[in-house]
Amino acid sequence: MFLDEIQKVYSLINPNLTDGKHILAKTSDTEIITFVDVVLGLSREKNIDLYVTGSNSKMLSTDIITEFRDKATNIQLSPLSFEEYYGYVGGSASEALYDYMQLGGMPLAVVKRAEEKKEYLRGLFETTYFKDIIEQRSAP
What's the CA gap between 130 and 125, in Å, rounded? Predict the structure, then answer.
């Protein structure tokens, strides 16, 4: 089972307390069900391989790792090294190094057409640095 961008799941007031209705939780509510509860519940089911992804500031918290201690393996994905990048693009090593230094090694950027690369990277930068980091700084 794949749960992509799990941090976008809304917390609910425990449905046992609301006659089974799904009501979004407020920060002041105490009896809530969060994505952590959902993932932990699914992790107890037999015959489920569970893969959870998240990419924003809520997933950067060390609190998340603590919640899943001894229940998960954290796989960190990094950009391509120059060796990996060059192994894919080939050609002149100096031109490849120049492009790598300009555009980095984000795998999706490497396979995009030249005119799409900068727009993709600009969007990635705005999402990662502006939205996620600002959200992390403004979190309670």
Answer: 7
Number of folded domains in the chain?
A: 2
Q: What is the residue whose two structure tokens read 């969060």? A: 34
pLDDT digits (tens, 9 = 90+) for 92-115: 999 999 999 988 888 888 889 888
Same domain, 63 and 10: yes
Residue 73 included in any domain: no
Burial class of residue 52, CB neighbours in 10 A (0-12, 13-18, 19+): buried
Instruction: Compute the CA torsion angle 115, 116, 119, 123 (nearest 10 deg).
Output: -170
pLDDT of residue 61: 54
Residue 5 neighbours by CB under 8 Å, 6+ apart:
53, 54, 55, 56
Global pTM reads 0.52
- Residue segments in the chain with a per-residue pLDDT below the cut of 70: 7, 54-65, 67, 69, 71-72, 74, 131-140
8, 58: one domain: yes
